[in-house]
Amino acid sequence: MENVLSIFFCLSLFYVVITSRVKGYVTVLRVQGVLLSVIIVIPFISHFSIFGVILPVTLLVVKVFLIPRYINKVVLDLDIKRMIEPTIQQFTFLLLVIISMVVIFVASNILSQNTTLNVIPFASGFSAIVIGIYIIMFRKKLIVHVAGFLILENGIFLFGTAVASELPMMIELGTLLDVFVVVFLMGIVLNNISSTLKGFDVTALGRLKD
Amino acid sequence: MVEFSIFILLPLLTSLFCYAVKNLRAQYIVSLGVGTLHLVLAFSVFLGYYHTNLPLFFSVDSLSKYFLLILSNVYFWVVLVSFSYLKRPVSSRAEEGKKYYFLLLNFYLTANSAAMLSDHFGMYWVAAEATTLSVAPLIYYYRNEEALEAMWKYLFLVSVGIAFAFIGILFLTLSAKGSVLEGRQVFFWEFIRNAKALNPIWLKASFIFIFVGLSTKIGIAPMHSGDIDATSNAPSPIAALMSGSLRLTALMGVLRIFQIIRPTSSYEFAKIILIIGGLLSLFVAFVFMFKVNNYKRMLAYSSVEHLGLITLGIGVGGLAFVGAMYHAVYNSITKVILFLTAGNIHSRYKTREVSKVTSVLNFLPKTGWLFLLAFLAISGIPPFGLFFSEIKIFEGILFSDKPVVLFVAMFFLLFIFINMGKIIFSMLFKKGENDTAEAGVEKFEFIHLAVILLMILLTAIAVLSPEILYQNIINITKDFGMKI
Fold first, then answer.
1. CB-based burial label for A29 (10 Å; 0-12, 13-18, 19+)
2. Are the Cβ atoms of A167 and B202 closer than 8 angstroms?
3. Considering only CB atoms, which chain B residues are within 8 Å of A112?
4. How far is A20 from chain B (nearest CA, A)?
5. What residues are paired with B187 via a beta bridge?
6. CA–CA distance, B391 with B407 (Å, rounded to integer)
7. At B231, is the pLDDT very low, low, confident or very high (cuts 50, 70, 90)?
8. Which tens digit of pLDDT belongs to each residue from A2-37?
């Protein structure tokens, strides 16, 4: 089941690569949030515990409702154009992503021969990390960079479930809170950037250099 | 639990107090009280007068009590001068920044203390990320375009960096597969004790990710850019706080993974990575000192240089490691002095451009002389502490198996010293075209007193070389399993 959901997670990554609209990114963040919540709730189906519910529910609230709504609000408030403005062609980007994913999946399979790990969630998570970085590198809009950062964070989360590292509840919730506050702060900064620097993309940031 | 309350809960409650009470003076008095209490307790713990009993995920060892004391000391002085700094006239937009100043400062203390005292990688990560969240809005204090850009870059780069460090932590758990640590929590002490059982490939990957990720926060090249922008655009007390303590909080994470890797076969690999990181930082500082035209950026590059030197010392090990530990405390105090005096210069000249700052000794004689002394201190001139710590680092490198590193490092340091000297002497002595105005008598301010006291502290530690400090550093070295 975890493998199937991880494959859906990978498909969401492909969608994010080919979409040219900011709204597409927000949708993908919601979908990934749902997938991650389901993935972490699976082990608790057989033995129910209240603690097993707190984390998935918090994850769902933060990643599916709060953060995407907040990003949508920022996009609407600042009247950001809905196109993502790539710096490389979509086809080149897709090719780069496919090559990276193939390398990651093959490498993960080789690594799994020495260490017991769940290859598909592991490789899917790592792919999301790499694609998140690509998005930050190859997109101009700062709000899309935030989405790239969140995809990277989602990748880390999936990656964490693949290596079966269970952090204590308090720390898991702490990491979620940190990510939420980071995004919240980024939204505030974007608001200020739009009013002070009159722009929403990286070209507005060029004052600080030696 | 008393120590947990004072180190972590009390600053958090003070944050809430600062949110509720809008009076700046009241915020200052309470924050200073908490800072003083924090310092007294951190000092008592360091001296061994107080034995801690912290809850799960927190504990104290030689390294954490040493770094906690450095943090507490820097924080105390920064809070002490903050009120007189906040009284300086700023733009109407920047007035708004004052409202959250002490709130964020207290939150910074909570997060930083938690990071220093944590003995679990997960807890350390949460706290380290929280330090970023507390300091990022403080960078935007002046509410101008540069500060905004610096805040964005810092927040974004460090958040991505910290995310990388988290991947490193996951790799660390992966390295425990098949060993006695499988399925166990990532407590530092448990991993250090059973380090030999860890899978070397995943352990190396873990080290790389944690080191590269946290480098964004430490300011190690090539991940230093966000940190440089932030330090150079933040208000001076915050820049002092970042250079004096925040970088060490991030270094703590690198030291922990280094401590884990030390008894394993991957130790040599980690040493080489740290040496490369250190040398690269010295190289970056060397290159940019040739063309830097902003004196606060110059100080930020100086931080890159000194953290690079500390990393180099840690990587070489032995006596260089001892020198690096001494260097941490001396560098933190000197950076506070440098940034506070640079803040005075900025207040008078309203610019950070070197070419527009002339005759500082004429217009601001007190600040000018202190700035000059601080420059001598940071350059490692005796009797200031950095001289002694650098000698130890150099001696350690010379008698290590990589003596050539010393010549490369000294070449970079020599040119950094020359270029920094040129800039500072031009600011202090060069006469500008419009300098016909009469030399003003500089009022003796509270910041001057704090800087003089810090200067005395810096010299006293170096000259007296307290046995307790030496013993603690030796204990850290032993904890790392190094021979001197």
1. buried
2. no
3. none
4. 23
5. B120
6. 13
7. very high
8. 889 999 999 999 999 998 888 899 999 999 999 999
| Cβ <8 Å between A192 and B288 | no
- List of chain B residues whose C-beta atoms are within 8 Å of the C-beta of residue A192: 140, 148
Cα separation values, B117 from A45, B66, B395, B407, B441, Å? 36, 11, 31, 37, 46
- Cα separation, B53 vs B7, whole angstroms: 12
Least confident among A158-162, A195-199, B410-414: A195-199
To the nearest 10°, report the CA torsion of A65, A13, B161, A158: 70
Average pLDDT over residues B167-196: 88
pLDDT recorded at residue B436:
63
CB A84 within 8 A of CB A22: yes
Model pLDDT for residues B28-56, shown as the tens digit of each residue: 999 999 999 999 999 999 999 988 888 88
Where residue B439 falls among pLDDT bands split at 50, 70, 90?
Answer: low
Interface ipTM: 0.93
Express each pLDDT in A159-168 by its tens digit: 888 886 677 7
Query: Tokens at residue B460, please?
Result: 């006293």
Q: What type of residue is B287?
A: V
Contact residues, chain A, for B122 at CB < 8 Å:
167-168, 171, 174-175
Q: Where are the domains of chain A?
A: 2-195
B150: Cα within 13 Å, side-chain hemisphere = 28
Dump pLDDT digits (tens) for B337-356. 999 999 999 998 989 999 99
Q: Does the global pTM surpass 0.90?
A: yes
Residues of B in contact with A159 (CB under 8 A): 167, 170
Out of B150, B155, B170, the one facing A186 most closely (by C-beta) is: B155
Q: How far is A162 from chain B (nearest CA, A)?
A: 10
Q: What phi and psi, each to the nearest 5 degrees, are found at residue B465?
A: 40, 70
Tally of CB atoms within 10 A around B35: 24
Q: Does A115 contact chain B (CB < 8 Å)? A: yes
Q: Is residue B146 less than 8 Å (CB to CB) from chain A?
A: yes
Which residue from A115, A142, A160 is facing B199, i.e. has the nearest CB?
Answer: A115
